[in-house]
């Protein structure tokens, strides 16, 4: 092998290493920003990651909304009719946020409480995110199966 071939081989190897490192960085960033959806039943079954961001969806439990004295913090519960998960949120809630209505919150589970950094309310009477609708239907099926 002459020196020209060695240089060419070195350049190709260096290029492959740089491309591999760039691909690894892109996939790592993608994985960190990927946010999964879980229902309250899945959270109760410990399927949701503790300390990592994800979304939880369902209905705002009737009578569960409590506004704290600081005027910014709100506590409420999200339910899929089978299980409920307590949620805390600091910030202003969407105008359509109401008890008994659909909601999706994004945040992290910490010591059994979902600490939300974003809360989304459904935008019309007929819409519910597909993941939340499926979770509620699954919870209803499980509840009926347990009664039988």
From TrEMBL:
Which InterPro entries does this one have? CcmE, CcmE-like_sf, NA-bd_OB-fold
Gene name in the database record = ccmE
Taxonomic path: Bacteria, Pseudomonadati, Pseudomonadota, Betaproteobacteria, Burkholderiales
Q: Which residues lie on this side of the membrane: Extracellular?
A: 30-148
Organism name = Parasutterella excrementihominis YIT 11859
The protein here is known as Cytochrome c-type biogenesis protein CcmE
Q: Cytoplasmic face: residue ranges? A: 1-8
List the membrane topology term(s): Single-pass type II membrane protein
| Residues bound to heme | 123, 127
Question: What does the UniProt function comment say about this protein?
Answer: Heme chaperone required for the biogenesis of c-type cytochromes. Transiently binds heme delivered by CcmC and transfers the heme to apo-cytochromes in a process facilitated by CcmF and CcmH.
């Amino acid at each position: 092998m002459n020196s020209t071939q060695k240089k060419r081989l070195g350049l190709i190897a260096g290029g492959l290493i740089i491309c591999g490192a760039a691909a690894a960085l892109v996939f790592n960033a993608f994985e960190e920003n990927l946010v999964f959806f879980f229902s309250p039943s899945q959270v109760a079954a410990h399927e949701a990651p503790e300390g990592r961001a994800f979304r939880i969806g369902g209905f705002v439990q009737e009578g569960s909304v409590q506004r704290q004295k600081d005027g910014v913090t709100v506590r409420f519960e999200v339910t899929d009719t089978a299980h409920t998960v307590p949620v805390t949120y600091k910030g202003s809630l969407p105008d359509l946020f109401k008890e008994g209505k659909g909601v999706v919150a994004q945040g992290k589970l910490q010591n059994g409480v979902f600490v939300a950094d974003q809360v989304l309310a459904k935008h019309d009477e007929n819409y519910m995110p597909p993941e939340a609708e499926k979770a509620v239907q699954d919870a209803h099926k499980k509840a009926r199966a347990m009664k039988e």
